[in-house]
Design a protein that fits this description.
Layout: H1 2-25, H2 30-119
């Protein structure tokens, strides 16, 4: 935002200096000079008003965009929570089966060890 203010200030100062130099260096009568100064000041006023309106529009657009971003992030977070819960629910029965298979394998290994030691 500081760069935008610096740019606007630079444009304004440059315009004032350029217009002043032009007005003072051209050979014109007092009446013509006053008319030109009046016209130029009206143009600057209009330009500043346009810059102000553009700044307000940009501010409003940024505010709206940030609100939309917050809403999207909230929705995404909720969807991720639901997906994780669903994933856990789908994986849980398989974990129990794997645990049962491991217990069966362990039991079989113990039986096998007992048979091997009994034969010795």
């Amino acid at each position: 935002m500081a760069n935008g203010k610096s740019l606007a200030l630079g444009i304004l100062v440059g315009s004032v200096i350029g217009a002043s130099a032009t007005l003072l260096s051209t050979p014109t009568s007092g009446k013509e000079l006053r008319t030109k100064v009046k016209d130029q000041s009206l143009e600057w006023k209009e330009m500043l008003e346009n810059l102000k309106l553009d700044g307000l529009r940009l501010k409003n657009q940024i505010a709206a965009t940030s609100k939309e971003g917050v809403s999207l992030i909230k929705d995404l977070t909720e969807e991720m929570k639901i997906s994780i819960v669903d994933w856990k629910e789908s994986v849980e029965p398989h974990q129990k089966n794997i645990h049962q298979y491991l217990e069966q394998i362990e039991s079989s290994l113990k039986d096998l060890e007992e048979k091997v030691q009994g034969n010795k």
